[in-house]
Amino acid sequence: MTHFFQWTLYLTVCLLLLQSVVLRSAEPETEPRPHIKIRGIYGGAPTQLLEQNRTLPELGVNAIFMGSGSLTQDRIQQLKQQGANVFAEFNTMHVTSYLKEHPDAAPIGVDGKICPPPHGWQGICPTHLGYRKYRMDEFRRVLKEYDIDGIWLDYHHSHASWERAEPDMPDTCFCERCLKQFQRDTKTSLPDAPTSQLAQQLLGKQKAVWTQWRCDVFTDWVREFRSIIDETRPQALLGTFHCPWTDTEFEGALKNKLAIDLKAQAKYVDVFSIMPYHARFNHPQDPAWISRQTAWLGKYLGIKGTPGERHKIWPIVQLSDWGETVPVEQVQPVLEHGTRLPATGVMVFRWGSLHPQTDKVEAMIKYYQSIKP
Ligand SMILES: [Zn+2]
């Protein structure tokens, strides 16, 4: 009887120990992650919390990303006094209002006609000189006027809708200006034929040259953005919010549809903010998709996340509901995958729609606090 009692006690203890191990492994990660330098919020300052006299250090937040149109000197000073970096988001190819007075800047489709905006996402012809000057002037003004720590390109790609499970990426731009510049830059000549026929040729036997030329046009914008930073605020970082697909997903759409040549842009860009919105992009049950895409990007660009490296990867991860909901239980795993190397910073998308969901906000704060070195 005594023996039996001892065995029962022994087994009970073993079971309890096992249970505590299982429970612990399911608990949120609470280890500091000193490789993560940036714990950010995208979409403006968390004024709702600051008004409750909570400070950014108390929230574990040390970076705010805000639209370049909503910057004010007072706001920047207020955030910097709390030890935060302030980064501006800059709209490059998506200022729709420009088309009202300059309809000739609308992208032209394979049929030679204005290509309607897919799902309402309006792009602009990348060789329109007036539009380019308009954006460059605005970029310069923002950098001159505001004491920001960096500026992030947003929507720097061709006329397309890809921030969703099923993208719509029409082939553009076959306007006369683009076709002329293509021939000049690549030293080729196109026959005197209707646009629809030329488009067929460019997407057929000349596809490789056409694709690379389009990429080079978009990269050249990045070169000019960089040169403006170097002239006006050289210590500021140049970042880009970009499509999270690999080079082979959607049949190589990153280059041959969106005209994003990440390797070429790396010459000018400091920080790559890949946008793995897991819920929005058809991976609602798979937050690990975030770290898989980040790992791919690191490999592709040769970024390891080691101290002193020039290039950095700071993903923007989805916590707010957009199309798909993100349950509160996912806040921890999303941030856990978003802060794995080679990432050295992270930010959450996006304050405007996230802040009313206070349970998720508190879960974010808890995670940010837990990884603070
Ligand atoms: Zn064009």
From TrEMBL:
InterPro entries assigned: Divisome_Glycosyl_Hydrolase, GH
Protein name: Uncharacterized protein
Organism: Gimesia panareensis
Upper lineage: Bacteria, Pseudomonadati, Planctomycetota, Planctomycetia, Planctomycetales
